[in-house]
Amino acid sequence: MDCKIREWQIEDAENLALTLNNKKIQDNLRDGLPYPYTVKNAEEYITSMLSADKDTTYAFAITVNDKAIGSIGVFRCNNIHFRTGEIGYYIAEPYWGKGIGVSAVKQTCRYIFEHTDIIRIFAEPFAYNTASCCILEKVGFQCEGILRKNAVKNGVVLDIKMYGLIKEY
Ligand SMILES: CC(C)(COP(=O)(O)OP(=O)(O)OC[C@H]1O[C@@H](n2cnc3c(N)ncnc32)[C@H](O)[C@@H]1OP(=O)(O)O)[C@@H](O)C(=O)NCCC(=O)NCCS
Q1: Which of 11, 17, 35, 62 has CA 20 to 30 A from 25's CA?
Q2: pLDDT score at 1
Q3: C-alpha distances in Å from residue 118, one per residue of 15, 89, 168
Q4: What does the pLDDT read at residue 60?
Q5: Could you report the per-residue pLDDT of 50-87, keeping only the tens digit for each?
Q6: Which residue's alpha carbon is at the smallest distance from atom 34 of ligand 1?
Q7: How far does the centroid of ligand 1 lie from the alpha carbon of residue 95, in Å?
Q8: Which of 90, 95, 137, 153 to mutate to test the pocket of ligand 1 (most atoms within 8 A of CB)?
């Protein structure tokens, strides 16, 4: 299925709220998102992304036929890591398994390497998150190691995989 990435629009709030009102998605993300996730929460997120520092925050809606069906972003690290960015993403459940994850991560990494001075993009999926690890490997990320017992999610201690993609050109 053909997908694109584009800047968020405030009109995406309803679809974003629909996407994030899903435990299966939130269970694979860091803590801190409200649940249930309201349209107001979504509007606040979109507003904050639109007003964020353009040199540190690269946030996009993932769209199919211009409908927002997911979210992806690269967030620049600071201090000595300022040329590194962390990528995060999620896709609405009805759109899983259609290659959208691979395509959105590929498009976003290409954008970052072409339009910013970031030279390393990394992701830290839970080690059990096969779909996310599979996406990263298909895009060319290398698994650089397993961070053992590096997170606690829903009261469970979890390993995390460290994936990195380096700008090669
Ligand atoms: C992870 C997620 C982004 C995957 O998106 P997606 O669009 O379904 O991914 P794709 O269709 O591009 O699939 C990528 C690969 O993973 C595989 N895959 C997808 N779901 C899978 C699953 N549940 N178990 C094992 N493999 C799976 C696919 O088969 C595909 O490989 P293939 O092309 O060889 O068949 C989506 O499930 C999601 O939003 N999950 C919740 C949030 C999350 O985990 N975010 C990432 C945090 S690091």
Answers
A1: 11
A2: 85
A3: 30, 18, 11
A4: 98
A5: 999 999 999 999 999 999 999 999 999 999 999 999 99
A6: 134
A7: 10
A8: 90
Q: What is the pLDDT of residue 169?
A: 67
Domain residues of the chain, as ranges? 4-123
The candidate with the shortest Cα–Cα distance to 18, out of 33, 38, 32, is: 38
Q: State the pLDDT at residue 153.
A: 98
Residue 63 CA to ligand 1 centre (angstroms)? 16
Measured distance CA(46)–CA(132) in Å, rounded: 24
Pocket test for ligand 1, best of 2, 91, 122 (most atoms within 8 A of CB): 91
Fold of 4-123: Aminopeptidase (3.40.630)
Residue 125 Cβ < 6 Å to ligand 1 = yes
Task: Say if ligand 1 is within 6 A of residue 122 CB.
Answer: no
Q: Is residue 38 classed exposed, middle or buried when 0-12, 13-18 and 19+ CB atoms within 10 A define those classes?
A: middle
Residues 6+ positions from 126 with CB-CB distance below 8 Å: 28, 132, 151, 153, 158, 159, 160, 161
